[in-house]
Write a structure and sequence with these properties.
CATH architecture of the largest domain: Alpha-Beta Complex
Number of strands: 18
Largest sheet: 8 strands, mixed
Structural class: alpha/beta
Shape: globular
Radius of gyration: 22 Å
Helix content: 25-40%
Number of helices: 15
């Protein structure tokens, strides 16, 4: 490990006087501004943190687009108090208030359970989140911090625990099992859908679903489908699963659907938030099938035929987030190298380009997760494969990066090359 990287990890440097923060003052991207001001010192009960990585979530798009009409922000004074998005966050403690010095030490690392149910608040909504280079968390948020105990874990891989925990939590009540042979990920070419896809291959390889034969992923974006095929075909072959990525608008879709699963699907994951689409897909569920409602449906929408569910013995489960225990379980997998959350990374960007990163997500141009590295200077939005010839990666790491694969080793080269004190 280089001296510079060790200095970064241990916070063995002089903290800057200035802090940069993306603040939202009203609905719309035109009201999201990068502000610069004096970095605030923590009060007696507060901790100051450094954002190491903040992964962009589609929820950030919703917050910025809706402003204070967002259900979680109704009644919040956004004009005066502002919103700082970002909840898929890996942070390091850089200063500690007098009253919490026994509990927190400089250099301690954490991730955040954003949904603060006890207080009816959420990080990245009515509590300032991770779209910043340095920030402050008070006592309420501190109750929802989860320690990263393996100091060798990478920053990006732990930041990605939050979305992966949401995926894992969605299977808590009704998981893929030994009798399941066919799975349909409906609307699954986005970042979260790809996490579900990787998990399907994983449950086959771990023998949790030993009879899984076919996984279908559908999406209306041909470029995304092409990207998914290129990225995961080898993984599917290794798992021994027939994997198809199809566009439902294609003329031959119905015939291919019939050929893939003539008796229907055992498990359907709804990743498209359009009730009519999922209601149509449900017609392909077999008896004893499972419907996993994962997409962000609006309250009061959709119609489920209870009689059909009853007589076909369909299980319906829904999920819109994760709990602290879900995040702890996924973090444990990451820290033990049992789960590679970095498989979800697509591009990196510095703090200045965070807004562009969210716009890429909004417009469907981001084929997977965009990682904000607020401490890296002069880092425009860059797909991972494009970094291969831009940074001094060792040969073995360079080959992986050229394939679009992110890792702790690649991250260390990025920080050594781009960290600006």
């Amino acid at each position: 490990m280089s001296n510079q990287l060790q200095e970064y990890k241990s916070v063995g440097y002089s903290l800057p006087e200035e802090a940069r923060t993306w603040q939202l003052s009203a609905a719309g991207f035109e009201h999201l501004d990068l502000t610069r001001g004096t970095r605030r010192k923590p009060g007696p009960d507060e901790i100051a943190f450094r954002t190491d990585v903040n992964s962009i979530c589609f929820s950030d798009v919703k917050i910025i687009s809706a402003g204070d009409s967002h259900p979680r922000l109704v009644g919040y004074n956004i004009a005066d108090e502002k919103v700082v998005p970002g909840h898929e966050l890996a942070l390091t403690v850089v200063e500690v208030g007098e009253n919490v010095k026994e509990k927190y030490k400089i250099g301690d690392r954490f991730i955040v359970q954003a949904d603060m149910l006890k207080y009816g608040k959420a990080v990245g909504y009515d509590v300032w989140g991770g779209f910043c280079d340095y920030g402050i968390f008070g006592p309420e948020v501190q109750e929802y911090l989860i320690p990263v105990t393996n100091t060798e874990a990478g920053y990006s891989e732990v930041a990605l625990v939050e979305p992966w925990a949401c995926v894992q939590a969605s299977y808590a009540r009704a998981d893929v099992g030994e009798l399941d042979k066919t799975v349909w990920l409906c609307g699954g070419a986005g970042p979260m859908g790809q996490m579900h896809l990787v998990r399907m291959f994983s449950v086959k390889m771990s023998a949790q679903a030993p009879n899984l034969e076919t996984v279908l992923l559908t999406d209306i974006s041909d470029p995304r489908l092409e990207s998914v095929r290129a990225r995961y075909s080898d993984m599917a072959a290794k798992a021994g699963v027939r994997f198809e990525a199809l566009n439902p608008n294609a003329a031959d879709f119905d015939s291919k659907l019939e050929e893939l699963a003539p008796e229907g699907f055992d498990y359907l994951v709804a990743l498209c938030p359009v009730p009519e689409v999922i209601e149509e897909a449900m017609k392909k569920l077999r008896i004893y099938g499972v419907l996993n409602l994962f997409a962000g449906f609006k309250r009061g929408t959709g119609a489920l035929n209870m009689g059909d569910i009853h007589y076909d013995q369909i299980t319906v489960t829904g999920n819109s987030g994760s709990r602290i225990d879900d995040m702890k379980a996924v973090l444990e997998q990451v820290e033990s190298s049992a789960l590679d959350t970095n498989s979800s990374a697509w591009a990196v960007v510095g703090i200045e380009g965070a807004k562009q990163g969210v716009l890429e997500v909004k417009e469907g141009k981001a084929f997977n997760k965009v990682l904000i590295y607020p401490q890296c200077k002069d880092l425009p939005l860059t797909p991972i494969e494009d970094l291969a010839d831009q940074l001094p990666f060792p040969d073995d790491v360079k080959e992986e990066v050229r394939k679009g694969l992110w890792s702790k080793k690649a991250e260390e080269v990025l920080l050594e090359s781009k960290w600006g004190k």
